């Protein structure tokens, strides 16, 4: 099918696109616009009143408390990305190159862990991280003091939960990138005189970049919205953006504030994505290089 | 050969319980062009991988440039490989691909640049290709880049793993001609793996024919064509005819008789007899171009057979006939000089003849 320059006049094309367009508009664009509109409204006596007012936005920009939480959320997300990649890359590399015999079994185990409900897994970590939990019990038995680890209800606890729940994503994207690398390219590097380490940095790592980037982006976006882990394992001591937004909507019944904070989080996420994709594109700087 | 650059002796390679190479020995002289040929699964690629250092032989000794290669990794060998699928680095430009071996040897940037440009000239590639990526080049251009990358570090031996199998016939011919010229100019030893004996004949100084992990014959293209070791080698080079005969040793050669030509016998001189002749399945190798159609002009000593024309193909310089002869399993293939007047039509019964003393006697 040839798509004309004036494709918007083609009734068949319009009809074919219509269902998707309706779904996208109804469930993506409309809520987003509604959220944006909501930020200009005011609440009085737990009631929304229709107005165009910048009151909420002045509040958002004047209270450093909100920004502390936003910055903390972004930092936690970035740290989570770093830790996830650091764990996922070697695991995916081993799976793609070394552990071929048990590949299927290991993949099934990872998928099982991945598909188990996140709430269950997160609560499961309480049993491990608790002062009288499994981790301390094990450490005690190899000679550490009884309360060597004190991770539950700390940001570190939150991080452990986030990493645990998200690490499978980059593991799969990186694995897929690695298995697509032609074995001959590695042999060609050896043949040209490269050591194993050099081959890794010259061939394997650059060619696994698509998986690295997409894995990192997935983890980052999902970390920004982390809700469960700071609540269950962080104990609410260092709330993240999602908790702040929930409080605005539910506890304080200040919907315009919640909407404004949501917009801030969306903009931060979009900016980070734009930055990282600009970075990714710059690295493959070829003019007219086929993607 | 005074001092071979490659000296492989009794190389054995097992994959699990399967034996891929059964004690293969091969020597390659300095500056020589050797082709390894055989059907798929004959072990030619395995042997090449062992030379490159991608595989360790299970048993046997391999010396390259006089040094034992046991435990020497591919990176430290004086060999460079051109891969079947070329294996150009997709994320590196043409300049980075060609310069990669020099970068690893820490050759200064200015010298690398000069040598990469020199390779580009040698391969007839345009200088503005340097900043392109392999995916932006045509198949033939990628081929040249792969050759340039393999040759830029001036290796002692260039290994080629069927690098032209993916190209169309015309491009293949022109690259074959260039490869031969390149070999003459550089004086580097080339080892080419191919399943195409015709390609091997065109390019190589010596051909090593392999089957089932054994070397069947090593020799010059003329040896392989005119003095094949057995029916496998003779049949591998292209379509040909085998006439089963009974052979009896005599003082000056071999006396042969054929059940298809009763009463006729011929004496085959020793130089027309395969050295490894065995009792089993002796046959006369009669090339399609040495058979003619006999009308009423039979010559003395000529053996003649009668058959029906099954099919013919006009090839231009020659016309090929397939003639069904009663008592022979395969149709006899006859190549006649091309002419506008066809000497015979499909379904016609013709008499074909050849001189048995000019045929070659071999066995299975």
From TrEMBL, chain A:
Keywords: Cell membrane, Membrane, Transmembrane, Transmembrane helix, Transport. Belongs to the binding-protein-dependent transport system permease family. CysTW subfamily. SUPFAM superfamilies: MetI-like. The chain crosses the membrane at residues 12-40, 69-96, 108-128, 211-228, 257-281. It comes from Rhizobium subbaraonis. It is found in: Cell membrane. It is a multi-pass membrane protein. The keyword Transport applies. Pfam families: BPD_transp_1. GO terms for biological process: transmembrane transport. InterPro entries: MetI-like, MetI-like_sf. The keyword Transcription regulation does not apply. This is ABC-type spermidine/putrescine transport system permease subunit I.
UniProtKB/TrEMBL annotation, chain B:
Keywords: ATP-binding, Nucleotide-binding, Transport. Residues 6-237 form the ABC transporter domain. The keyword Protein biosynthesis does not apply. Gene3D superfamilies: 2.40.50.100, P-loop containing nucleotide triphosphate hydrolases (3.40.50.300). One of its GO terms (biological process) is quaternary ammonium group transport. It comes from the Bacteria. GO terms for cellular component: ATP-binding cassette (ABC) transporter complex. SUPFAM superfamilies: MOP-like, P-loop containing nucleoside triphosphate hydrolases. GO terms for molecular function: ATP binding; ATP hydrolysis activity; transmembrane transporter activity. Belongs to the ABC transporter superfamily. This is ABC-type Fe3+/spermidine/putrescine transport system ATPase subunit. It comes from Rhizobium subbaraonis.
